[in-house]
Amino acid sequence: MANIKDIAKMAGVSVTTVSRVINNYPYVSAEKAEAVRQAMKKCNYQRNINAVHLSKGKTFLVGVVVPFSNHPYFGLLIEGIANAALNNNYKLVLIQTNYEEVKEIEALTMLKDKQIDALIICSRICDWRVIEEFIEYGPIVLCEDAREKNISSTFVDHYKSFSAALNYLHQKGHSRIGYCIGRQSGTNSEQRDAAYKDFLKKNSLTYNPDFIFSGCFNFEDGEKVVTDLVQMKDRPTALLVTSDQVAAGILTCCKEHGIFIPEDLAIMGFDNQPISKVMHITTLEIPLVEVGRKLFFQAMDGETVSHEEIAVELIERETV
Amino acid sequence: MANIKDIAKMAGVSVTTVSRVINNYPYVSAEKAEAVRQAMKKCNYQRNINAVHLSKGKTFLVGVVVPFSNHPYFGLLIEGIANAALNNNYKLVLIQTNYEEVKEIEALTMLKDKQIDALIICSRICDWRVIEEFIEYGPIVLCEDAREKNISSTFVDHYKSFSAALNYLHQKGHSRIGYCIGRQSGTNSEQRDAAYKDFLKKNSLTYNPDFIFSGCFNFEDGEKVVTDLVQMKDRPTALLVTSDQVAAGILTCCKEHGIFIPEDLAIMGFDNQPISKVMHITTLEIPLVEVGRKLFFQAMDGETVSHEEIAVELIERETV
User: Of A82, A114, A132, B232, which is the most buried if we count CB atoms within 10 A?
Assistant: First the structure.
């Protein structure tokens, strides 16, 4: 491909003149400008936007790290980020990690290499010390409680919201409460587990590891939970399910096994996804699209560190 | 930020020498290499990957155009593309268009501006003549039957698959068959509508516009369909639903209204999403993750134009 030097040579002008013509600057004679345009046409010259970005130091790309691109929780976050990005002429670079550390480091390296202007990490596997090393290269924003850290974050206080949900179930008469979660590691999961253990302690209830179901991400994972429940001698009477999709799956499979909701088992979802409304699932609303929007604007504002706690709301329906 | 010229000046060497040190080329004396490294350290020099991409003419980014980022159908396509991209050291630039023409043109312009190496269009609103103008700038791949066009495509023959589904329902004794679809425009929708009309004609059945439900994208859209069905005097006895999510929504809401499946209404989904398995929905399997993978490799192979037709398979379960 012809570059700017080739064009200059062909048109018999300086490189500066070619640059001025390309960028529509003044102070170029009509004659020279025409010669440049003819030369560009002749060798089919195309402006390379990377050269423009190189000179401006901006790419108008924002990186978004998600463990799975195809999951309703991250889908809503991405929707919020994508809408805000579109309105601000930014594009998203989607980095799906499958919770592999090396993929997260690749995303951080994109920031270091200035391939993206900022990085939003929706959920991470890397240790904080790894992330910390990349702060100097550009804005990094976390979707978790990072109030103790020197980067911006938008988050739900999962300790507080889990405690509120557990107390609600307890008030409804439940003392055998279990919960379903995606992965057991991770900041959010640790907060939830702490809330669970503190709740049991406060109410003098015993901890039963069989009441905790991990690996619950999607609708179809509800089937596994019900298969386990059916085989249990002493079932929980209530389940706190950290995803409405999983709650919907549990609800559907319980019906097939003759387990009545909420009589035999109370179910409480999380997020207030559309499926919870259609299936009348009691849930804790998390405004994920709004969280995504806030994350985008924090990423754009690289100058200041801010922390936004998002309030959750209990939506009472028919499954508790 | 210091650039390569500043480094050269500071180290007292030529720009070429600095470039050689940065890119680990041989033929640099240990002394000069050390001077360059010291100068780079002193002014905190960071390699700008856009400069590297500029010189190599590659970005290792592939653009993916989707109308909605948060939809299970596109979720599975993105998953297939994302996995193939990860394994080939490519990143995705996700361009959510909401079916706005201007956003699609922005994506095409990214290809023209060399901000991405190739573009995969999962679903489009732009006229073919608009897309055609951008072919010269890099590989564009379509997820629709583009056998008549000079760009690669991976697609399902929606005329053929819709006809097969309609004939299956007809064999099961149905002659009052309706269908649910996302949008009525678009190549795939036009093919389906043609198959529907040809089916009616062949079997001497009358066309009833009330039997076609559009705007059906998500689980919650099933509610609207059932609300309409309940108010109809002469309901269809079978529905072909172009999304398993919508089929699941219809199934859930029918139960609430005392409409028995399949006795009162047969339901046939599309895609074979996990939700269809859990809810025992008869469906046409489309291997979307595999489609995504094929689209990625077609985008990478900019030299040859290929067309891959993906076979669908009827999965008989309990809703027909």
Answer: A82
- One domain for residues A35 and A125: no
Same domain, A71 and A175: no
Residue A225 and residue A298 in one domain: no
- Distance (Å, whole) CA B199 – CA B197: 5
Give yes or no: residues A85 and A125 share one domain: yes
Residue-wise pLDDT for B37-80, tens only, equals 888 877 776 666 656 565 667 888 999 999 988 888 898 999 99
- Domain boundary pick from B47, B66, B81: B47
Range of the domain at A185: 158-285
| Å between B277 CA and nearest CA of chain A | 8
CA–CA gap between residue A215 and residue A72 (Å, rounded): 15
The encoded tokens of residue A299 equal: 């990423």
Burial class (CB in 10 A: 0-12, 13-18, 19+), A55: exposed
Q: What is the predicted ipTM?
A: 0.73
Q: How many domains does chain A have?
A: 3
Report pLDDT for B47: 63
Interface test with B, best of A219, A253, A254 (most B CBs within 10 A): A219
The pLDDT tens digits for A204-254 are 999 999 999 999 999 999 999 999 999 999 999 999 999 999 999 999 999
Mean pLDDT value of segment A96-110: 90
* Domain-located, residue B180: yes
Mean pLDDT of chain A: 91
Nearest-by-CA chain B residue for A84: B96
Instruction: Note whether B20 and B112 are same-domain residues.
Output: no
Nearest CA of chain B to the CA of A287: how many Å?
15
One DSSP character per residue, A186-205 reads SHHHHHHHHHHHHHHHHTT-
- Say whether both B207 and B264 belong to one domain: yes
Residue B145 in 3-state DSSP?
A: coil
Q: Say whether both A81 and A127 belong to one domain.
A: yes
